[in-house]
Amino acid sequence: MVYAYPETSITKHGIVINGERIAYTATVGHLVLLDEKGVKRSHNFYIAYTRDQ
To answer: Which of 5, 31, 36, 51 has the most crowded CB, counting CB atoms within 10 A?
Structure first.
């Protein structure tokens, strides 16, 4: 079973590449892997970058 902590952080950013501004969102959080008894087996940190429309 995988549990995602509700405390994600979402921030908005932008970068200029070859004169074109690209807006994107960065999302960071934690995922915890639990075994069948509910015992924590691993704790993982993630970052996702998505381009804004």
So the answer is: 31
**pTM value > 0.90:** no
Residue range 39-52: mean pLDDT, rounded:
93
Which of 10-36 are b and which e, b meaning 16 or more Cβ less than 10 Å from the residue's Cβ? eeeeeeeeeeeeeeeeeeebeeeeeee
Residue among 3, 17, 13 at smallest CA distance from 50: 13
3-state secondary structure of 5: coil
DSSP string for the chain: -EEE-S--EEEEEEEEETTEEEEEEEEEEEEEEE-TTS-EEEEEEEEEEEE--
